[in-house]
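Something for you to look into today, if you have time. Could you write out one complete protein record for me, on any chain you like? Leave the record below and I will have a look.
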Amino acid sequence: MSPEWLRIVWRSPSGRTGCLLILLLGLLASFTSIGWLGQGWSAGSDISWGEASASHWFGTNRLGQDIFDRALVATATAFRVGLLVTLGAIAIGACLGGMAGWRHDSWLDHCVMWLAGVLDSVPVFLLAAALAFAFGGGVAAMYLAMILSFWTTTARLVRAEVMRLRGQDFILAARAIGLPGQQILQRHLLPNTMHLLLVQASLTFVAAIKTEVILSFLGIGLDDGVSLGLMLAEATQDILAGHLGNFLAASSCLFLLLLGLNLAADALQDGMGIKQAPS
């Protein structure tokens, strides 16, 4: 199934556009992460708020740091946040949703759905602020808040699909030959929810990036390094001074990244005939 989802996205013109944008930005982020690009982002210079030039494509900020290099590092940060949060949320949601669906109407099912309901009632920004206060700040609070907030939708989707599948003939046959419930869940039920998990992973990736930008902009996200949210927060002061480099670089990277991800996610969603679950 691994190449099939890519073929589904590639068949759509908008999906191809999204894939190309993601590929371009992903390559830039990868080259930045391994040290081929953007290594001078933290180095200041005497050129404060320098104009755009051949050596500084978007100029420099108040500290004389190259804005384009900072945008590259911030884009790599966005990919890292999206990947880590998506993996955590999808893994937790699939496991808990699968167990809840297999043991429908049991104490486990009720506990999982109760916990999901409680977490859904708490806005992710409030949860992040509370965890940041509890942990004394740090990036761990942001990651934990997003994972705790985003696994619930995946769990509900997987639970509903497992409940539908467990009455199918191939599951009844597996039970008839004496396969343990855990093996049935792992070998037969969860693999048949991959189409849901792929779509939900693409949507979670987008949500994680947007949430990180907002949290960092508000000062309760990343507190070390550079992110698109931090650059936009800096840009609020730069704009008042008449300098748009930070704003243009950060907003352009964010727009292109979210555009590519949304186009690819929509194409995957439409190709698989899956409607987005209400949040």
Remarks:
- Residues 2-23+79-272 form a domain with the MetI-like fold fold (CATH 1.10.3720.10).
- The CA atoms of residues 62 and 148 lie 37 Å apart.
- The radius of gyration is 22 Å.
